[in-house]
Amino acid sequence: MPLWIDAPLWPRHGTVFAHLVSDVSLEELHAGAERAGLHPRSFHGDHYDVAQERYDDAVRAGATPTTGAHVVRLLTASGLRLRKRRGDRPVARVRDVAAPGGGLMDVDLLLSPVPLDRGRVVAVAVLVRDDDGRVLLVHTPGRSAWGLPGGGLEDGETPADGAVRELREETGLSLDPASLAAVGYERLTGRPGPDGAVGRFGTGAVLLQVLAGSVAAGDPAPQAGDVDEARWVTPAELGDLCGGEFWWPLVVALVDA
């Protein structure tokens, strides 16, 4: 059976919740959730939260009742289980992303106010907003794409220090490292591509820390050669420019928070 649901036992928001999962694919899971009328925001990376009031809808949509322990075993065996720490909220898993330098990556996107262990963090991105709610973006000509300011960490650098340096290089704007807060992260799990090539981060999992901060105002002006433009954008413009990027679901969750 592709869809399974455990008993609604988990208390939150004045009710109790069950977990709807697939042991086949996320595509099967999303299709079942749509049949059950579940809101997309109830998806948490490898499962949907189902309030007890919607439990029968999920069963009618094809979910087989089972236990919580069985749900965990199914997710683990299928490779769909998304690992998280206490305080993390999974947003999405994106497969077969092109890795820098070749190869492929599977990417887990998670919200979290809990800073990462520096030992596994290889890069940082910073979500900067101004007093009008606009978001700061930079354009990278090498990829011909817009994204958040950020990049790889240098030796001995903390994620906050790296974010401040990258922001200054890519936009000319400054932030106090103490004003930055951890808001999420990307887990990048590399593997060889069809041609056997492996990307810059190799195989296994590394982490990209996402931080957030704000500035009152400022006209961005790139100082680094790998960025040719920086601009403030509205939430609507943000979607137009970045809606197709693999990390987009994480930014949507952050902007809507």
What can you see in these coordinates?
- With 257 residues, the protein is of the alpha+beta class.
- The chain has 2 domains: 3-78, no CATH class; 89-256, Nucleoside Triphosphate Pyrophosphohydrolase.
- It has 6 helices and 14 strands.
- The strands form 3 sheets. A 6-stranded mixed beta sheet has the order 6-7-12-13-8-11, sandwiched between helices. Strands 1, 2, 3, 4 and 5 form a 5-stranded mixed beta sheet that branches.
- Strand 6 and strand 7 (104-111) form a beta hairpin.
- The chain is globular.
- The two termini are 35 Å apart.
- The mean pLDDT is 92.
Q: In which order are the strands of the major sheet placed?
A: 6-7-12-13-8-11
The CATH homologous superfamily of the largest domain is called Nucleoside Triphosphate Pyrophosphohydrolase
Examine the secondary-structure arrangement and name the CATH architecture of the largest domain. Answer: Alpha-Beta Complex
Q: What is the tally of helical segments?
A: 6
User: How many independent structural domains?
Assistant: 2
Structural class: alpha+beta
Q: What is the 3D shape?
A: globular
Distance between the termini: 35 Å
Low-confidence stretches: none
CATH class of the largest domain: Alpha Beta
Approximately how much helix is present in the residues? 10-25%
